[in-house]
From TrEMBL:
Limits of the SH3b domain: 344-403
EC number: 3.5.1.28
Gene3D superfamilies assigned to the protein according to its UniProt record, in alphabetical order: Peptidoglycan recognition protein-like, SH3 Domains
A Pfam match: Amidase_2
SUPFAM superfamilies to which the protein is assigned, alphabetical: N-acetylmuramoyl-L-alanine amidase-like
Organism: Turicibacter bilis
PROSITE patterns the UniProt entry points to: SH3B (PS51781)
Enzyme class, UniProt record, top EC level: hydrolase
Record-given protein name: N-acetylmuramoyl-L-alanine amidase
Keyword Nucleotide-binding (UniProt): no
Catalytic activity: Hydrolyzes the link between N-acetylmuramoyl residues and L-amino acid residues in certain cell-wall glycopeptides
Keywords: Cell wall biogenesis/degradation, Competence, Hydrolase, Sporulation
Amino acid sequence: MSYIFKENLVSSSKYSIKCPYPMKPRYVVCHNTANDASATNEVSYMIRNNNSVSYHLAVDDTCVIQGIPLNRNAWHAGDGSSGPGNRYGIAVEICYSKSGGSKYTAAEENAVYVMARLLYQYDLGIDALKQHADFSAKNCPHRIRDEGRWNSVKTRVETVLQAIKEGRCDPKLSSGTTVILPPYSPGDESPSLPGLKFTVKVICNELNIRKEASFTSQVVGTVKKGEVYTIVEVSNGLGRLKSGVGWISMGTDYVEKVTVDSSSTSTDSFSSFTVKVICNELNIRKEASFTSQVVGTVKKGDVYTIVEVSNGLGRLKSGAGWISMGTDYVEKVTTTSSSSSSGYQVKIVNCSVLNVRSGAGTSYPVVTTVKANEVYTIVDESNGFGKLKSGAGWISLSYTKKI
Ligand SMILES: [Zn+2]
């Protein structure tokens, strides 16, 4: 889900009625409208009438509408002209609370992100999140209170606030996004193809981190000049950060390669695997570099064995050269490692806890975890993941050692 953010600010000629005092916010105050009108209609009514009733934001299932500047007070908390709610609280009205239902549920979810972003913007902790009822004797937010869900709403806001602080959620109120990325965990560090891992240094002042491998994907954070990152996958000219936070441009104006992680490219620890070409034509390059001389091409549907990976390119077993390992260009077919039908044993290494997922990839949910030095039998392999014989799920083989 997401929302569209719009301003429909009250005319400054009405400040004396709607928002007479400058304000440095100390609270975010949650309300339910007790009405079934949209955010657009609520705010246009509020700024049009001449009652000393006002609030900063109305949130519905699709929109967030701002009616009062956030640096001015509003009359919403029922605690008088000098009450802390009215003088220091940013009021967030959640629409459609009278009848409830799916539109209300969606409005409340949007409001959770709005309230978290406001707390973050004003450097406030979760305890600054208040109910209207904290300031005066009114049963508001009525639906949340009647359903006994205030603590749960507060927890949801806290989760989003934490995600914003960790760079896993867009902090901007106007962004309209209502997604948070999963927290970093060692099990998420699985390259899409074995062995692809290299380090880059940021050489421009600031570089966006994007949620997906696309230059138009949502910006979820930035990296700064001089910082060094490990890249575990390359796609569309972007590299996936090992931390799991997102993707950064691999453009040579922005990053420069530092070192190759020799442990992942040395031939003695590398098992060959097979890829199928999924783009129409793909260059074969002489060396493991995208700027190296083109010595031939491979075609869609062709299948090749890769015996080494470096810089995002894979060396063809034939010795003809190197091809891109980008997931837009090739897909892994099978591994040619010595796994037999009865499976093989691995020990968990290089991490303290490793996620077990319901499928072979980081997009699958985590079902449980395993711990360092534990030994498991792997009965199938896919996408760099191994299937546990127990049937519990799949683990990243990057954090295992065959025994
Ligand atoms: Zn209220």
